[in-house]
Design a protein that fits this description.
Elements (H helix, E strand, L loop, with lengths): L3 E2 H8 L2 E3 L7 E2 L3 E2 L10 E3 L12 H6 L4 E4 L7 E3 L3 H16 L2 E6 L4 H13 L4 E2 L10 H6 L8 E5 L7 H8 L4 E4 L7 H4 L2 H8 L1 H4 L6 E5 L3 H4 L8 E6 L6 E8 L5 E7 L2 E6 L7 H14 L4 H10 L9 E4 L5 E4 L6 H14 L5 E5 L9 H14 L4 E5 L2 H15 L4 E4 L2 H11 L5 E5 L7 H8 L11
Parallel strand pairs: 4-5, 5-6, 6-7, 8-10, 8-11, 9-10, 11-12, 12-13, 13-14, 18-22, 19-20, 19-22, 20-21
Antiparallel strand pairs: 1-3, 2-7, 14-15, 15-16, 17-18
Helix pairs in contact: 4-11, 4-12, 11-12, 13-14, 14-15, 16-17
Subcellular location: Cytoplasm
GO molecular function, one term: UDP-N-acetylmuramoyl-tripeptide-D-alanyl-D-alanine ligase activity
Family: Belongs to the MurCDEF family. MurF subfamily.
Length: about 475
């Protein structure tokens, strides 16, 4: 973080200093909420959770080098005490970002946010110092913690913004006002909370409403609900996609034999060829979104294409491909799942598995509300239509819907099976996998199917897998 004294921080967040002998002492390290991340110069944000109270770690973090705590009560050690630590963290982020002067890029969407964020970060970082979140720190706590990492030499700050309710993204943009706002898509993730895709579109579009007139709204030309957001901003609108009307588009899209997308990137400043290291055709749209951002920030088509071709996956358990010594390929995409990302992952599996046996180990997609049965059924049917060799549905009711969809599509039990938990899936696969097979593992985060991918990756391991 940009160095600030404890007195300055207290003034910014409206807090009171307690047990601080010298308020001129500066915070020179990061702002963290995990005591294991404390280094000398840190400001430790003490949150009270359901199971853990950050205030209980006061002595440990100070001994580890924290200058002070940002806390909601005195702890007998150096602390800035505020009424609400979350709001104080946001106020501090707003102040630091304004002081740093970096160009802010913010993105949202129902699917692909984290993968696209990683692509944008790598493309921009090839040009100038760039800060971006690790994983998907996209809420009222994670976003400020990322923003507070900016330094005086930071040129670009890339932020991912998530939402469960209308107004969430508007609040996040008030903390870190973007110069460039990007909307990837409007799908069915969190449809149970929002009530419909139109409400989701209303929430996602908040990211472009506050853009300055000299800013840029990057919108998906291939998604009607996203494209319809254009009137909600005074900023320049830039369209990306495979549509002929897109300003930044892909031509001659294809997949390599290994399932990696290749295409001709066309921007207003020229065209260049891209062959990605990532897996799955769905990354083409993500790459085009990143290219549109980079173009607006002055990068040439050749520079963008080179950076996209060199970019890898920065976040764990997102189409993470491991080739086992025995020739089995494990695709760990178990970080999260919604209907759109499930379909994309299954198509990627089909492309990777040409001439090989393919396995889709799938679990529950959460937060779908009344759409849950239909969406799980549709994913099971799609697995059969794509000629996936075997669907392994893992878990309870939702998994049974996946298996039922496959059965009703015509698998008649030959191409699908329902197992109770992760350990049962591992036992089945260990007994039946053979060299050359490709295994996709995917479900919502709460299911914990990454344990299946990890167990299968560790060939010969016989340890038990925690059933979820």
């Amino acid at each position: 973080m940009i160095a600030l004294s404890l007195a300055e921080i207290a003034a910014v967040v409206g807090g009171q200093t307690h047990d601080i002998p010298d308020p001129s002492v500066q915070v020179t390290g990061p702002v963290v909420r995990d005591s294991r991340e404390v280094v000398p110069g840190t400001l430790f944000a003490a949150f009270v959770g359901e199971r853990v109270d950050g205030h209980d770690f006061a002595q440990a973090v100070v001994q580890a080098g924290a200058v002070a705590l940002l806390a909601s009560r005195p702890v007998g050690l150096p602390a800035i005490v505020v009424d609400d630590v979350t709001k104080a963290l946001g106020a501090l982020a707003r102040h630091v970002v304004a002081k740093a002067g970096a160009t802010l890029v913010a993105l949202t969407g129902s699917a692909g946010k984290t993968s696209t964020k990683d692509l944008i970060a790598q493309v921009l970082n090839s040009k100038a110092p760039t800060i971006w979140p690790e994983g998907n720190l996209n809420n009222e706590i994670g976003l400020p913690l990322t923003a507070l990492r900016v330094a005086h030499d930071t040129r670009y700050l890339v932020l991912e913004m998530g939402a469960r309710y209308i107004g969430d993204i508007r609040y996040l943009t008030s903390l870190t006002p973007p110069k460039i706002g990007l909307v990837l898509n409007v799908g069915t993730a969190h449809i149970g909370e929002f009530g419909g895709r139109e409400q989701i579109a209303q929430a996602k579009g908040e990211i472009i409403e506050g853009l300055p007139e000299d800013g840029s709204a990057i919108l998906n030309a291939d998604d009607p609900l996203v494209r319809a957001m254009a009137p909600r901003t005074k900023a320049k609108v830039v369209l990306f996609g495979e549509s002929a009307e897109a300003d930044v588009r892909a031509e001659n899209v294809r997949l390599t034999d290994s399932g990696q997308p290749a295409f001709r990137l066309r921007t207003p400043s020229g065209a260049s060829d891209v062959t990605m290291r990532l897996y799955g055709e769905h990354h083409v749209s993500n790459a085009l979104a990143a290219a549109a951002v980079a173009h607006e920030l002055g990068m040439s088509a050749d520079e963008i294409a080179l950076a996209l071709s060199e970019a890898g996956s920065l976040s764990r358990w997102r189409m993470e491909v491991t080739e086992r010594p025995d020739g089995v390929t494990i695709v760990n995409d178990a970080y999260n799942a919604n209907p759109e990302s499930m379909r994309a992952a299954l198509r990627a599996l089909a492309a990777m598995g040409q001439g090989r046996r393919t396995w889709a180990v799938l679990g529950k997609m959460a937060e779908l509300g009344d759409e849950a049965l239909a969406e799980h059924d549709a994913v099971g049917r799609l697995a059969v239509r794509l000629n996936v060799s075997k669907l392994v549905a893992v878990g309870g009711t939702e998994a049974s819907w996946l298996q039922l969809g496959a059965y009703n599509e015509g698998s008649w039990g030959e191409e699908s099976v329902h197992v109770s938990d992760a350990q049962a899936a591992v036992d089945l696969l260990r007994s039946e996998l053979r060299p050359g097979d490709v295994v996709l593992v995917k479900a919502s985060r709460s299911v914990g199917l990454e344990s299946v991918a990890q167990a299968l990756t560790e060939t010969g391991a016989e340890g038990e897998v925690a059933a979820r």
